Amino acid sequence: MGHGTAEERQREIVRMARATGSVDVTTLAADLGVAKETVRRDLRALEDHGLVRRTHGGAYPVESAGFETTLAFRATSHVPEKRRVANAAAGLLGDAETVFVDEGFTPQLIAEALPRDRPLTVVTASLPVAGALAETGTIHVLLLGGRVRSGTLATVDHWTTKMLAGFVIDLAFIGANGISREHGLTTPDPAVSEVKTQAVRAARRVVFAGAHTKFGAVSFCRFADIGALEAIVTSTLLPAAEAHRYSLLGPQVLRV
Predict the structure, then answer these.
(1) Intra-chain end-to-end CA distance of the chain, in Å
(2) Which of 172, 206, 224, 238 has a 20 to 30 Å separation from 194 between CA atoms?
(3) Are 244 and 253 in contact (CB under 8 A)?
(4) 8 A C-beta contact, residue 161 and residue 195
(5) CA–centroid distance for 245 within its chain
(6) What is the per-residue pLDDT across 51-66, written as a single tens digit (0 to 9) for each?
């Protein structure tokens, strides 16, 4: 390319980041025909606008009202980390008998890690979670009804929230597209946000589990404050100092 405005270049960078899940400075500089420093400047500008998060040598896209990764894509990124986090989160079950499992890939892994040898009722809006757990034959599954969102295969809208409002749940395992100290837990879609809000409201205990990439990211709809969480489970890729800052707001922070 080597031509076009900074704006065109930046739009192209966002498009590539969203298409592939991440971009690196060296490849971008070659593809766009500009200096690495120019690419770095572009990434800084895009980060300031909340469109990407910079990493060492590159960037990855931030989920927003206009862009959300699919469940299929999430099942390919940071998988070993997410599995460690999910196993540790499942370990916080305690004596809970009724459990809400959120939509998303990490919650799906939590569902897989739940014990099969004790009475457990799982309430979920996620079709993949309900399907996987129903096959165990030992876990009672309550699937919340409603409109099914294509990207995440989870139910939303007033049917879902109304059904959820009728329950008192011992423990909710919640996922999010972003978690930040300032803005709490956020997600791009208002319909999803309402289901999550209702789940947090219905639960006695709330545990957030997610990969380190979620931290500091802010999406469109806030559904819970950090103080509403009993625990945050993530990996050691979240710096200890940052984990400590979250713990000051109330929750226990586990890094695995």
Answers:
(1) 43
(2) 238
(3) yes
(4) yes
(5) 20
(6) 888 888 898 887 765 6
